[in-house]
Amino acid sequence: MADFLHSFWQMRLEHCAEALSENNFSVYIADSPSQAGEIFKGQIFTEMKISSASWGDSLSLKATAILDFLRATPDLHFIDTFEPGIEREESMERRRRALLADLFLTGSNAVTEDGCLVNLDMVGNRVGGLTFGPHHVVVVIGRNKIVENVEAAVERIRRLAAPLNAIRHEGWKMPCVKTSFCMDCKSPQRICNTWTITQKSYPKGRIKVILVNEDLGL
Fold this sequence. Notes:
Helices cover 39% and strands 21% of the residues. By secondary structure, the chain is α/β, with parallel strands linked by helices. The strands form two sheets. A six-stranded parallel β-sheet has the order 1-10-7-4-2-3, sandwiched between helices. Strands 8-5-6-9 form a four-stranded mixed β-sheet, sandwiched between helices. The chain is globular. The chain starts with a helix and ends in a 6-residue tail after the last strand.
């Protein structure tokens, strides 16, 4: 059964990778989160000349051990925007500095079969770094994020990714935390504030996507 699933998703990933490549993204395919980490360390990172790096919150990225590698890299200033224990004011200041890092890493809420990234953000730091600022961007995406088109991406995010993301943060009190459904709320803690559709990478190759043949993230 697992072999059939792997083969099915491998074909879907290759189709998605071709579409992303046509849209000027650099694309890599990994069988697992650990292999995604090896691709980053052995292929992507070695081709970069960078002195600083940061990231936007991503469960997919955490699964690859890339962040641990960057934290341990000598002579690299890693701006840890979500370091445990820091005050929110400090976290926000680091998120601002992250927009000027040489390398920015994150996940994506969805990727379409015709090669677009679709994301919804609360603060805007994640989509901000994806869109402009850092010279290099690396996005890790599990197979579960592949959808047919932008409309399906929006539906996936509203029905699944956004409520799940709200629920996983302890202490948040938006309506979806209690119902599991998007209520298009007016809560002061609302996380659904900024939509972005990245149709192409500009400049070509600035955004590098690692597609993973496993379900990752939300």
